[in-house]
Amino acid sequence: xxxxxxxxxxxxxxxxxxxxxxxxxxxxxxxxxxxxxxxxxxxxxxxxxxxxxxxxxxxxxxxxxxxxxxxxxx
Length: 74
Known about the structure:
By secondary structure, this protein is of the alpha+beta class. The chain has 2 helices and 2 strands; from the N terminus they run H-E-E-H. This is Methionine aminopeptidase.
């Protein structure tokens, strides 16, 4: 159990650090401020608006959507 807790704590600390960095830059943590996400497979690529920030790329929009969903997206 100690190893599981150590990995879990490391992962949550890393995520919190990422959120802090993105908040300071006012960028969406999920798309890193680009406003879109890309999905690649062997045959094609597709680009979609980021659902977390509604394609704006802003942390403030991500935070608003996150609060409406009941917490940060994980």
